[in-house]
Write a structure and sequence with these properties.
single chain, mainly alpha
Length: 167
């Protein structure tokens, strides 16, 4: 198994697990005991400011799609759709994850009054985002198509007529 497939598998499993967790969060604060504790620890807001279940479900779907795209780009599952579209999607996923991880470390790391959320953000959420983003970027970079193969149409030269012998 190649390093690209290992990285893609790890990223796809991580993204899929995050998607599944967001799916659970549409109806439950698991693994925490209350919505108030969940809001404070996982989201960093008051309970009244929690995202709606519909928004949380949309994030779950997006993470599931990201998981599939990374797995497809790493040739772990069959690809549906065009190669360039999947590759660009994987780069987009990598960018979002790397940005979220870096921004989380900066914003949570610079706060003067740490909260439950900022402690978890520095210890787990941001590093996990950076790790998944790095793995995803590796998959996107290591599976780049040869130059010119990414184009929708390929220009080919007409075959030269063969010379006629014996004329």
């Amino acid at each position: 198994m190649t390093l690209t497939r290992i990285a893609g598998g790890a990223a796809a499993v991580g993204l899929g697990a995050a998607g599944a967790l967001h799916g659970i969060w549409t109806f439950s604060p698991w693994p925490l005991t209350s919505r108030a504790e969940f809001a404070r620890t996982v989201v960093g807001v008051a309970e009244a400011d929690l995202p709606s279940p519909e928004l949380t479900a949309a994030v779950a779907v997006a993470l599931g799609a990201a998981s599939y795209a990374v797995a497809a780009q790493a040739s772990l599952v069959p690809r549906v759709g065009s190669g360039p579209l999947v590759r660009r999607g994987v780069w987009g996923v990598a960018g979002v994850l790397l940005l979220r991880g870096a921004a989380g470390l900066v914003s949570s790391g610079l706060t003067s009054r740490p909260s439950d959320f900022t402690r978890w953000d520095v210890a787990l959420y941001s590093p996990l985002s950076l790790a998944l983003g790095g793995l995803t970027a590796y998959v996107a970079a290591s599976t780049r198509a040869p130059r010119g193969q990414d184009r929708r149409t390929e220009v080919t030269r007409p075959a030269s007529p063969s010379p006629v012998r014996g004329a």
